[in-house]
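Work through this:
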Amino acid sequence: MKDALRKVLYVFLTFALFLVSVSAPGEAATRIYIATQAVGSSYYALGTGVAKIISENTPYDATVLPYSGADAFMPELKEGTINAGLAAVMDHVWAYTGTVNYDERHEELRMVLSGNWAENCTMTVLEGSGITSISELRGRRVGYEYGGNQLTVLMVDAALASVGMTIDDCVIVPVPDLNGALRALQERRVDAVFSGGNAAPASMQLDEALGIRILPIGDLTPEDIAGGVPENIQAIYDRLVPGASAVVVLGGTVKEPTVLTAFPIQMAVHIALTEDEVYTILKAIYENHEELASAHVWGRGWIPANFVPEDFKVPFHDGAVRFYKEAGLWTDEAEAIQQALLM
């Protein structure tokens, strides 16, 4: 009951703040709402760094709003009740094309930049569980559903598929979101969960408290991908989580070189933001991107060299295109892709 009341109050306050702070049609927006995943996630930590840069270096105030996932905030971004968001590449592609978990196209979505490649932790268990591979999850209790966060569900599906399994080979335990999954693992109500990024604050805290083990995708060793990602593994990514691939990761909660999943994290906005607004926001991020490394380790990958990917699938906002042309980052190839996407 208390949780329900808190959610109602949160929605009311958010909407009230939106009505007060967003300017009338024709005026420059004074507040930028940046949607991310839940508090404690890498998305939220990075989002706070982006909001700080915008608030301190532009005429606009930026606020981070946490959600269970992109599935939860994309409808609001489509309607314009929020005007920016941080999400994985596939969430933006699915939303723009109206595929997978989106019933209609989010044609109002526009890219601002592509940042770091998130190194995500496939399946996670407690160190004391004795589980050392994804194959050993057959018949075990596995966190699933994640409050409707389809990307997280598909990441679990991909991890299991990498060893020839599906979720039906496990005992399904519904969890509300990434933080709820970690709580369930801590309380030993599940044997394994998808835990998000290897540097997510909530994961780091659980690792310090009890110790966690990250299971390699496909039960692969670093040597197995020294010559490239196996075709069968990449085919699973391409089918379930396009834009993702396998990389060797070390650091954060990953204590030895481990083959995990990685994909780009991107910032997108609603097309209603003006060209000048997006230009100003992007210019501030571009000129102060080094500050993001102190907000979260993901920030180290938010560098100009990554901002315009070679093969993007969601068009950039006109304000971003204008800035990238001035900065010398917009190529003829990028322009061709942009025009094709807008047809």
